[in-house]
Write a structure and sequence with these properties.
By secondary structure, this protein is an alpha/beta fold. The protein has one domain: Rossmann fold, CATH 3.40.50. The chain is 22% helix and 33% strand. Strand 2, helix 2 and strand 3 form a beta-alpha-beta unit. Helix 1 crosses helix 2. It is globular, with a radius of gyration of 16 Å. The two termini are 14 Å apart. The structure holds guanosine-5'-monophosphate and magnesium ion. Magnesium ion (MG) binds next to strand 5.
Amino acid sequence: MEPKTLISEADIRRRVSELAAQISRDYAGKENVVLLAVLKGAFIFLADLARQLPVPHRVEFMALSSYGKGSASSGQVRVEMDVRDSIEGSHVIVIEDIIDTGRTLRYLIDLLKTRHPASVATCSLVRKQDRHEVEVEIDYLGFDIPDVFVVGYGLDYAEQYRTLPYIGIVEPSGS
Ligand code: 5GP
Ligand code: MG
């Protein structure tokens, strides 16, 4: 079944351009800018955002897994794949797909800060409002959304829907 549209392709495109412009202004003239995308969900967002950034930058990837019962994030995060090159002295911008409880991002920021970057900023396409359980600041945010399960634009449901061009809601099956 086709997911119901929550954020259209056009709205995403417009917002990504705005975020790119904002980041470009803030990082103008800075050296060693690193876009660090969290796999797998952030890969589409990274690709669109990075191609609109005139600021010289490199890209890095990390894969994280969080352990919890069912789909809830427990805060027990593990690094499944780490960055290829050191981030020491770099201006790191973490690129995330979605912030739910905030636990995954909180863990990642704390980890990165032990590696002596010049700075760490955060950028997420969407955030679930009223869901954050831990304090974590998002410097660049695309959209606040209600507490619904979303797919598309990198986000999956059992590895499906990642390449859907919009963000949509899947109706739970069998209900
Ligand atoms: P947090 O640690 O912020 O609770 O969890 C964030 C992670 O949970 C995201 O990176 C994503 O993997 C998963 N997640 C949370 N909400 C959703 C959602 O609505 N859709 C999808 N596809 N993943 C979600
Ligand atoms: Mg994620």
